[in-house]
Amino acid sequence: MTDELLGEPTVLVVEDEVELADLYADYLRGSYDVDVAYSGEEAIEMLSNEYDAMLLDRRMPVVSGNEVVLAMEEKDVECRVAMVTAVNPDFDIIDLSIDDYLVKPVTRDEVVDTVDRLLTISEYNERAQELTAKKLKRNVLEVEKTRAELQESEQFERLTAEISTLEETVENIADELDAENLERYI
Asked: Which long-range contacts (CB under 8 A, 24 or more apart) does 171-178 make?
């Protein structure tokens, strides 16, 4: 996953048009570890939690992008997904477990920016979840310990400092996502 100890983030490109699949993969190589599936069936076989992000064509023969998304849900695969497709969006995308939707043709910048955004969303969610867990621990200690015990505890002081740092990190990531989304639609 995106943890620095594990190396580059991993991206799965799912596209039945070989030239496009290879082009998208080339756009991303160098910044990400990229695998390619040239069909929906191949993508389902490759589904695992090793991918941080996926670019997914919606309209493919035999197994569509929608079916790949359903297979991900059934297998409980956690991966950020952007549909990259020639199909204009309709209200049915509301119920699809996807994070972004791009209509072809797309540029190199759009592909790279989309994957960057998907990974930023993952980072935001991870940090927000970590922040929530630490705040819950702090709240329990504040209820169960006296003010004096809290003030004397180096562990509690460290926890409080970690919460402050995480709050700032989460806020900065949220601001980055807001700025990216604003720029995308201007």
From this structure: 173/120, 173/123, 173/124, 173/127, 174/124, 176/120, 177/117, 177/120, 177/121, 177/124
CATH assignment of 4-107? 3.40.50.2300
Q: Within 13 Å, how many C-alpha atoms sit on residue 22's CB side?
A: 3
Residue 89 pLDDT class (50, 70, 90 cuts): confident
Residue 86 tokens read as 């020639």
State the amino acid at position 67 in one-letter form: E
- Alpha carbon separation from 98 to 57, 79, 108, 136, 139 (Å, rounded): 12, 9, 20, 30, 34
Decide: 16 and 39 in contact? Cβ < 8 Å: yes
DSSP E strands: which ranges in 10-163? 10-14, 33-37, 53-56, 80-85, 100-103
pLDDT of residue 49: 66
Task: Work out the number of other CB atoms within 10 angstroms of the CB of residue 47.
Answer: 20
What is the rounded CA–CA span in Å between residue 68 and residue 51? 14
* 3 state DSSP class of 44: helix
H or E, element range at 120: helix 108-144
More confident residue, 116 or 48: 116
Instruction: Please state, in angstroms and rounded to a whole number, the distance separating the CA atoms of residues 168 and 128.
Output: 11
Q: b/e string for 103-121 if b means 16 or more Cβ within 10 A?
A: eeebeeebbebbbbbbbbb
